[in-house]
Amino acid sequence: MSSRLVAVAAAMLLTGLIRPSMATELSFETFKPTGVPEYDDAVRSYLNQTTPKIINGIAAPPNAFPWQASLGVAPIADAGRAHFCGGALIDATHVVTAAHCVAGLNEIQLSVALGTVHLDAETKRLAVRKIDVHPDYRAETKDADIALLQLEKAVTSNTAIAPIAVLESTAEGAFLAGGVKFTVTGWGLTSVNGHSVRDLRQVDVPFVPAETCTDPLAYGSRVTKNMICAGSVNGDACQGDSGGPLITKGQPPVLIGLVSWGKGCAVAGKVGVYSRVANYRGWILAQSGEPPQ
Ligand code: 4AZ
């Protein structure tokens, strides 16, 4: 690329709008794996030209989940092909996601799509100024699987784009009761051997108490106090949903978890595990520059 082109690309990044076609063309020769599985999978599936998992969900109506974000591989122009993880807008300039989605990535490798249920080549993509991975995050255990993305430019709320409130620890008890259902949304796989989707999907998932989830026949001690379990064989999150929001069903809904991990998807006894965001509300507010409440 000539220095002039570099300057133009830099200017576009600074204005907060990414034009993926301006970025370095991806090829098997130039692609260096980042070590972030979802990101690398999205690039490989794009390069292999293979078809690009909310399990058992339904299509989400436009504007029903206006905080939903898609994290994309910036140099892939089609937002549907670029998608590799979800996220949730929490104020005009911050998106929370899973640490495992972004740990080790550079801001310029990443773009964020907001305000749409459909991902395609026309989708507007936003640049990220700063990736902030929680200092307690451990890749081996997925403990503290949370990160904050600061957008290059603030977004304006409208019917399609609006932040979601982060659940307070003191209010958590009221929600984490037996029989409660949450909703999870994402563009991830709709079956374990399936493919990710261009249109956002939603599914209700029952809360699974810690006693059940830490049973040796479930996940044992791998589920820590920083995680929440939810899901069943009739509804679960899957690959590509990671980092996306688990929300309460009340009005207005609040953010209670982020898709983090699980053994397979919709497997009996192996429910979805989510980062417990209430534990990180103080960190989120401190990082995002809001006074802790
Ligand atoms: C994944 O691979 C993944 N069923 C995400 C969520 C779940 C399993 C796997 C939960 O990103």
In short:
The protein is an alpha+beta fold and 293 residues long. It is 17% helix and 26% strand.
Reconstruct the topology from this structure.
Blueprint: H1 3-14, H2 37-47, E1 58-59, E2 68-73, H3 79-82, E3 83-91, E4 94-97, H4 99-102, E5 110-114, E6 126-133, E7 147-151, E8 165-166, H5 169-175, E9 181-186, E10 201-208, H6 210-213, E11 227-230, E12 245-248, E13 254-261, E14 272-276, H7 281-287
Parallel strand pairs: 8-13
Antiparallel strand pairs: 1-10, 2-3, 2-5, 3-4, 4-7, 5-6, 6-7, 9-10, 9-12, 10-11, 11-14, 12-13, 13-14
Bound molecules: 4-(aminomethyl)benzoic acid.
**Count of individual beta strands:** 14
Helix content: 10-25%
H/E series, N to C? Answer: HHEEHEEHEEEEHEEHEEEEH
Q: Would you identify the CATH architecture of the largest domain?
A: Beta Barrel
Question: In the CATH hierarchy, what is the superfamily of the largest domain?
Answer: Trypsin-like serine proteases
Read across the widest sheet, the strand sequence of neighbours is 9-10-11-14-13-12
Ligands in the model, by name, code or SMILES, are:
4-(aminomethyl)benzoic acid
Residue fraction in strands: 25-35%
Number of domains: 2
Q: Major β-sheet, in short?
A: 6 strands, antiparallel, barrel
**CATH topology assignment of the largest domain:** Thrombin, subunit H
Shape: globular
Q: How many helices?
A: 7
Category from helices, strands and their pairing: alpha+beta
